[in-house]
TrEMBL record:
Enzyme class: oxidoreductase
Keyword presence, Oxidoreductase: yes
Organism superkingdom: Bacteria
Phylogenetic classification of the source organism: Bacteria, Pseudomonadati, Pseudomonadota, Alphaproteobacteria, Hyphomicrobiales
Gfo/Idh/MocA-like oxidoreductase C-terminal domain mapped to chain residues: 79-278
Gfo/Idh/MocA-like oxidoreductase N-terminal domain mapped to chain residues: 3-67
Protein name: Glucose--fructose oxidoreductase
Database matches in InterPro entries: Gfo/Idh/MocA-like_OxRdtase_C (IPR004104), Gfo/Idh/MocA-like_OxRdtase_N (IPR000683), Gfo/Idh/MocA_oxidrdct_glycsds (IPR050463), Glc-Fru_OxRdtase_bac (IPR008354), NAD(P)-bd_dom_sf (IPR036291)
Tagged with keyword Zinc: no
UniProt-listed Pfam families: GFO_IDH_MocA, GFO_IDH_MocA_C
Length: 289
């Protein structure tokens, strides 16, 4: 990082390391005068997220969280259709993100360690659903409940959960369910409108995402002109433009902090087996068990 600080050719750093290292590496890059794009989850605790945001402000640098789906064409089309009323009134959404955890691959070995990953499937791939339903609805939940399961005898889940399920209640009255898991292989989002249901299946894959609009009588696939790569190039172009021209980030550090606070509330709900009430900033209300 010391050498990087003296290199004027480096304007930004992309932090894509194990979750527990995000905070320290991000802060070092910011202190070196570099803007940062940090992978999700932003960090393993909300306290670390706060430190990262404070470091960005102190350094007068930009801190963006890599929620690439905000640039994914099918997701953008589904949100535009929902916002335009083409689905009718959407009172419920469901998001299910599952993939096999493979300990034979280095990328998954650290994900089995709670101190490094911060949790199991929820923090790894469930975060797509948590961030996504808030983005589609344009609001954050006011209360949550949850449960999680780790099968006995499976060494992959000695420290972290396999399956996590959550119910989210929103101030508008909308509801959502979010599930994640480390055994099945599916990444799907459904927006349930009274005119039509938007199904993204897969919804957050690196390639091959599809959007189908339908009901009990018909189903129509919606095609997009943009290719899969735009979800990656789009977020990088956005950060570059904001660095060069100013403006607001679509997925700033504050969004990452919000989502980590929500994850903390969900683990609390799962541990106590009770609903947890939330403040607008996703901190748990006083008196929550």
């Amino acid at each position: 990082m010391g050498k990087m600080a003296d290199n004027a050719d480096i304007a930004a750093v992309y932090v894509i390391t194990p979750n527990s290292t995000h905070a320290d590496l991000t802060i070092k890059a910011l202190e070196a005068g570099k803007h940062v794009l940090c992978e999700k989850p932003m960090a393993t605790s909300s306290a670390e997220c706060r430190r990262m945001i404070d470091a960005a402000k102190a350094a007068d640098r930009r801190l963006m969280i890599a929620y690439r789906v905000h640039w994914e064409p099918h997701n953008l089309r589904a949100k535009a259709m929902m916002d335009a009323g083409e689905l009718g009134e959407v009172r419920f959404a469901s998001s299910d993100h599952h993939r096999p955890l493979e300990p034979g691959k280095p990328r998954d070995q650290w994900r089995m360690l709670k101190a490094v990953a911060g949790g199991g499937s929820l923090v790894d791939i469930g975060i797509y659903g948590l961030n996504g339903v808030q983005w589609f609805f344009g609001e954050s939940p006011s209360s949550v409940s949850a449960s999680m399961h780790a099968p006995e005898g499976d060494p992959r889940f000695a420290e972290v959960e396999d399956v996590f399920t959550a119910q989210l209640a929103f101030p508008s009255g909308r509801r959502a369910t979010v599930s994640s898991g480390y055994s099945a292989d599916k990444k799907r989002i459904d927006l349930w409108g009274d005119k039509a249901v938007a199904t993204l299946d897969p919804g957050t894959a690196y390639q091959g995402n599809r959007l189908v609009i339908g009901n009990a009588k018909r189903a129509d696939e919606i095609l997009t002109a943009e290719g899969d790569a735009v979800q990656f190039t789009g977020e990088i172009d956005h950060l570059s433009q904001v660095i060069a021209e100013g403006g607001e980030l679509r997925t700033p550090g504050e969004m990452g902090l919000r989502d980590v606070r929500l994850i903390e509330a969900l683990y609390q709900a799962a541990a106590t087996r009770r609903w947890v009430d939330l403040n607008p900033d996703m901190t748990m209300r006083s008196g929550t068990p």
